[in-house]
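Can anyone check this?
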Amino acid sequence: MGREAYENEKKHILGILFSLVLALGLMPGVSLTAYAYEADYYESLKNTEVKFANNDWYLIFCDDSIVTLLSKNCVTTSKYAQNNGTNSYSDSIVKGVVDDWFNSKISDDLKTAVSGGEMFLLTAEEAKVIPQEVMTCSSSTASENDGWWLCSQGDTTYRAAGVFYNGTLHFSKGFEVYKSGGVRPALKLDLSKVVFNSTTKEFSLSPEHTHNFTYYASGGTITATCSETNCSLLNDKTTLTIAEPSLKIYGGDGSASAALNGLDDFNAATGQTIAVTDIMYVGRAGTTYGKSTTAPTNAGKYTAMITVEGKTANVDYEIDKIDHIASAPMATATYGQNHLTTRL
């Protein structure tokens, strides 16, 4: 099967699986929960309504382990800037309003699931690719402009891009920054920190659990995976790999100790306290060297190994003899007029 045919077949199968997932989620009494490792599932939810932090949102973008949510309605109104202000979003009044709403309406525990730790307004470029029906929202009677703000600049320093309440974009010219407009914030949600209920359409924090690790070794690598269904390590396994010492020649440069690649991440994920001092060394192929945690430095053939929860990874290596032994200079003789001298 050609590469293109394979990819098409793969997409077809994934489409069927997603359809089945959605169909099951709609059946009475059936509730499905999607976890972080099922990121592709959220592609089927783009531009649909979801819930998070007691607010209604549209799921508008999916990017690997991150989804972007746009508030379904304007949460408040605000000027973009003062009468003599500019359309710089970073220094604007409306950014302060967005920040205040985030800090007051999103609980501290839910904030841990918000990528970047803040809310924001959409850019004009982002708004261009969102369907008009999603961009449409309820108008606010407190708004002087017939629309809501984007964070992009308008055609002059006192205009900022926006969207009319009927979903029509107004970014080429923009609204006057000193007039009141709707505030419709967005946020990025880290899928590794949340679960999604297909019945209620709600994101909530992933429940904490005690890791249930399984370890296995293959060659020089030990792999740990957690069997808990709501753990990202179910697919995103953590590995520890032993690498041969950099010392290659007796008496040469390099370290006689083997290395452990991925050590910090492995320990952080598993709670282990593995260290390079746990590496064992032993002679092989005729080299006599009893098992020891002290790295050998003499010429010979060796094996370095690391054991975690009864699983051992190892690497064979060799320290070569010195390339050559410098010979003492040979004596040469020269003859003078009256005597023989020896030159070394």
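Reply from J.R.: I decoded it. Residues 213-319 form one domain.
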